[in-house]
Design goal:
mainly alpha; 17 helices; 0% strand
């Protein structure tokens, strides 16, 4: 899939460039495309280099969280819900622990840490799967919840926004929280309908009402503020929450007599390796997208969509953020590169830049997660996993656009 997408960017850019040269007499188009190759290669490396420190820090913090027992607390809090959503999984199966650790990493915005945990959870679920080449109900539910990205702390997005010069990198925190909640609920409902899971069980209703109450309280409160106050308070809550989380990890580790410093160093080393791994992927995708844009192909598509919407008197500012939304289900690195490219072109604090950031945090990469997680255990028949995952993506993107207008419109 990624191979086809990457080649597609270059081939479409080349054909569009030939059309502009031969038909429109644009003699600068191939110069622009070549310059994009070099400039965006440099930009991608600089961004990756800038991420190294923050990834080391947050992977170190995550390691402290693991050793402090924070994951065990989450397990005890969430296991009653998971047991009812996955009735086919035995009560003491280690899959629950791996699932909760995976979801915890996603909540913290640590995508690279979440992937190995997710694969491990899928392996545990595969051990009790009677049809080894076909996804079980529990595997599908886990995958869809995973792809809908329960992101409470999108630290990586904040880091990219800071790298791209945002005045207040965390001002998209509350919008992301609302969008990711919507996508997760959509994915859960879609799977429940397909698998006939009874969501009206008292325990399930209690958890969902609790989560919903938090989200809707935030939404109601912030919707009554003017735009400037909304942005300021959203950022304040984000920063307080993030720093409180760090202190909670450390206090838990001290209570357990864990060497906090050594735990941090251990995790930070993993963060450094992760940062190194990101560089070639970001360079590849950002260069391909840059060439695609420089050729004019992206503008042709967006202009056609903009003209259509304008004829119906529909606000078209959201269109500049659509490249990230269109790429998100296909490629995490591609969507990340689209987000960075959008902020690079329009500005991190532009409406398009903020919308791209919200979209990036609203869902996970459906096809990538499906390929990695199911591929790791040899599943060939995904059943309704793709449909439910894409439905969650669609709802997350629609809500992301809506809250972008609410907070930054």
């Amino acid at each position: 899939m990624l191979n086809a997408i990457w080649l597609g960017f270059f081939f479409i850019a080349f054909v569009t460039g030939l059309y502009r040269l031969l038909v429109l007499d644009d003699v600068d188009v191939f110069t622009d495309m070549t310059q994009a190759l070099f400039s965006l290669s440099t930009t991608a490396f600089e961004i990756s280099l800038g991420l190294t420190g923050i990834l080391c820090f947050w992977m170190g913090v995550m390691k402290i969280g693991e050793r402090s027992g924070f994951i065990d607390i989450l397990s005890r809090l969430l296991q009653p819900l998971l047991k009812r959503l996955m009735p086919d999984v035995p009560e003491k199966n280690p899959a629950f622990g791996a699932i909760i650790m995976n979801l915890s990493a996603n909540m913290l915005g640590l995508d690279n840490a979440a992937t190995p945990l997710g694969i491990r959870a899928m392996q545990y679920l595969q051990e009790i799967n009677p049809l080894k080449d076909t996804a079980s109900n529990a595997q599908i539910l886990f995958l869809v919840i995973n792809t809908s990205a329960v992101t409470l702390f999108p630290i990586t997005i904040f880091t990219y926004r800071a790298q791209m010069g945002a005045a207040n990198p965390t001002d998209v925190f509350i919008p992301i929280l609302i969008a990711t909640y919507a996508s997760t609920m959509a994915g859960l409902i879609a799977v429940s309908v397909m698998q006939r899971i009874k969501l009206y069980q008292p325990v399930v209703i209690g958890y969902l009402l609790g989560f919903s109450a938090i989200i809707f309280t935030l939404l109601r409160y912030f919707s009554n503020l003017d735009q400037q106050a909304m942005q300021q308070q959203s950022s304040l809550i984000s920063n307080i929450t993030i720093f409180t989380l760090i202190i909670a990890f450390m206090l838990g580790a001290v209570k357990r007599r864990v060497n906090v410093y050594e735990s941090f160093i251990s995790g930070a080393k993993e963060g450094f390796q992760t940062a190194i791994m990101i560089i070639p992927y970001l360079v590849a995708m950002l260069v391909a997208i840059g060439v695609f844009r420089a050729s004019g192909a992206l503008e042709v598509f967006l202009d056609a969509l903009r003209s259509t919407l304008t004829s119906f008197a529909i606000d078209t500012r959201f269109i500049e953020g659509l490249p990230t939304a269109l790429m998100k289900p296909l490629s995490g690195s591609g969507a990340r590169a689209m987000m960075v490219e959008t902020m690079n072109t329009h500005g991190a604090d532009s409406f398009a830049g903020r919308l791209a950031s919200i979209v990036q945090g609203s869902t996970e990469t459906t096809f990538y997660v499906l390929a990695v997680y199911f591929g790791a255990v040899g599943i060939k028949k995904a059943r309704h996993a793709v449909v439910c995952g894409l439905f969650a993506d669609l709802i997350g993107i629609v809500v992301a656009i809506a809250v972008a207008y609410l907070f930054f419109g």
